[in-house]
Amino acid sequence: MKNYLICACMALMSLSAAFAQQSARPASTSQDAGTKQPGKSSTAAKKSDASKQSDSVSSDDQKKLADLLESKIRDMWAAFKNKNKRAYGDFLTDDFMAVEEDGQGERTKTVVLREVGESVIYDFHAQLFRVDPVASGAQLVTYENVIQFPPGSASRFEKIFISEIWVKRNGEWKSWRYQATRVK
Q: What is the pLDDT of residues 76-119, one digit of tens each?
């Protein structure tokens, strides 16, 4: 059931990002809408149109963007670990929403920033990053993070899988949505 909810949340986040992008674009022509093109099936035409929208950057540019977002995420976790609310907040959009692994439901940017001061993270190891374009100006970043708590804590380590949607606003990449799942 938990995996179903996570998948449903991720699908909704992806759809909302795509919907926001779709509504920002002018009405498409019949060719843009995926009508049959000579020598291509309508499915191939739709895939071609979708790839033009989401793959509008070269593979080199996508690699550079993936490296940038990975670096931002590592810096964001360092700010959280160091209880630096201002630095952490700079990585988030004003309409940021998070669903964390504790089952407490959605959190706004304001709530998350309050939690930064209560952090008991001793160290972290973010790894296995994957960055996929979901729309123009929006990237889905998935990764694993192993969090270490201080010596003497009831639990010393916690492994979580994380999905974030990063959006480019006013020329800056910021985290817009965050979903974490605890794993063993």
A: 999 999 999 999 999 999 999 999 887 788 999 999 999 998 88
Q: Are 147 and 157 spatial neighbours (Cβ–Cβ below 8 Å)?
A: yes
In degrees to the nearest 10, what's the CA dihedral of 167, 2, 126, 113? 60
Pair of tokens at residue 93: 């959009």
Q: E-strand spans in the chain?
A: 92-99, 106-108, 123-135, 138-148, 157-169, 172-183
**CATH code, 2-22+58-183:** 3.10.450.50
Instruction: Give me 9's structure tokens.
Output: 């949340």
SS (H, E, C) 90-141: HCEEEEEEEECCCCCCEEEHHHHHHHHCCCCCCEEEEEEEEEEEEECCEEEE
Q: Map out the domains of the chain as residue ranges.
A: 2-22+58-183
| DSSP one-letter code for 36 | -
Q: Is 30 helix (H, G, I), strand (E, B) or coil?
A: coil
